[in-house]
Amino acid sequence: MRTLFVTGGAGFIGSNFVRMVLDEHADTTVVNLDSLTYAGNLENLKGYTDNPRHTFVKGDICDARLVEQIVQRHNIDAIINFAAESHVDRSLVEPGVFIETNVKGTLTLLKIALEKKMERFVQISTDEVYGSLGPEGYFTEQTPLSPNSPYSASKAAADMLVQAYGHSWDLRYNITRCSNNYGPYHFPEKMIPLMINNALNDKELPVYGDGLQVRDWLYVQDHCTAIWKVLTEGRPNTVYNIGGNNEKTNLEVVRLILERLGKPDTLIRHVTDRPGHDRRYAIDSSKIMTELGWKPSVSFEEGIAKTIDWYLSHSDWLGRIVSGQYQSYYEQMYAGR
Ligand code: NAD
Ligand code: TYD
Asked: What is the pLDDT of the chain when averaged over all its residues?
């Protein structure tokens, strides 16, 4: 039996990963530490919290004593660190918590992984650490880190700490750098679920600037299978880029959502751009594809249709999130923009 210490497993990608592991890997147990910030939601794990191979702990990755207790109690083989503050726009308003969780929290986990000589430390990073591309070219694992937002700067700092632990001592790590994810349980502060929610409610769709920024979209379950591959077959102390080879402008994505929901393009509203907005992300995934035999299995057309259907059939989940605190967030970010 393998025991994974998953952090941030009540968030978007973490909960998709935990469900995948419990469904598909009967020889694996999961200890899931999540502080349940605004982005963490136990409803994302409905039907899985009672699973005997899953232990959920509410708590902070910065809490060294708690992390130590968890590791004493369970015979952990590997840490997979999803826990993070993850939204660029929030990092532009309130960067401090990004340093706390993304940098100091990662350091807390690294210390224990090293002390306990764990088999592997997998850091879930992002392509945003590489900065922004012009119209041509791709991020490879050799692209120098050049983060542009407080979010991506905090993620790059964490990556460098992980590499420093691997270089200075014998911590066995992997870093995965994935492009933009989409799919079920995505918090509606991020573009795709925000636009779906607004379109469903006939509200304006706030496109930043000219809307010609490019992102490389990957269906979340394909990201999860890539992480599993890296965890179980990845070469130690190696970085793997993960991408969908699926570049779209934001306007293309928004128009597709409107079309599928039968809503008019007149709902699109161009609003003031994000400060320092990265123009284009595009990932070269050839390393993970050739070394580990991973490839995305869900096309964008299929994935966006599945995602929209999921939001339509989970209106209770969405309704509970967009009531309350979310309203004031939306007001703060978008009113008068
Ligand atoms: P998310 O915001 O949906 O989830 C983050 C989770 O971490 C939440 O459940 C939250 O409660 C938890 N958390 C936050 N601070 C914590 C703390 N101090 N201690 C314990 N738990 C804490 O984020 P996501 O989109 O699922 O992203 C997960 C990881 O993947 C992040 O590290 C992010 O940088 C990375 N990533 C995300 C994307 C994407 O498109 N969403 C792409 C590439 C990489
Ligand atoms: P987002 O989902 O925040 O991911 P990231 O900034 O990490 O790539 O945004 C995706 C793209 O959509 C990005 O170019 C910013 C843009 N965007 C909008 O145009 N309007 C919005 O309301 C949001 C949240 C994002």
From this structure: 98
Tell me which of 128, 139, 177, 215 to substitute to probe ligand 2's pocket, judged by most ligand atoms within 8 Å of the beta carbon. 215
Give me the catalytic one of 34, 60, 85, 127. Answer: 127
Write down the pTM of the prediction. Answer: 0.99
Q: Considering the candidates 48, 138, 151, 329, report the single residue annotated as catalytic.
A: 151
* DSSP code, position 214: E
Residues near 245 by beta carbon (within 8 Å), at least 6 away in sequence: 216, 283, 285, 296
Q: CATH topology for 2-179+220-242?
A: Rossmann fold (3.40.50)
Q: Are strands 247-249 and 28-34 parallel, antiparallel or unpaired?
A: unpaired
d(CA 10, CA 84) in angstroms, rounded, equals 11
If you compute the radius of gyration of the chain from its CA atoms, what whole number of angstroms results? 19
Q: What pLDDT, in 10s, does the model give residues 127-136?
A: 999 999 999 9
Architecture of domain 182-215+246-277+298-324 in CATH?
Answer: Alpha-Beta Complex (3.90)
CB 239 within 8 A of CB 174: yes
Q: Is 330 a catalytic residue?
A: no
Helix (H) or strand (E) segment spanning residue 326 = helix 325-334
For the question of residue 151 being annotated catalytic, the response is yes
- Give the position of tokens 């726009």: 89
Of 275, 217, 273, 220, the closest CA to residue 246 belongs to 217
Quote the tokens at residue 264.
């008019």
Contact 296, 245 (CB under 8 A): yes
Confidence (pLDDT) at 324 = 82
From the alpha carbon of 33, which atom of ligand 1 is closest? 20
Residue 219 falls in the annotated catalytic set: no
Contacts (Cβ under 8 Å, ≥6 apart) of 154: 85, 91, 95, 98, 99, 102, 103
CA–CA dist 232, 27 (Å, integer): 13
For the chain, the domains span: 2-179+220-242, 182-215+246-277+298-324
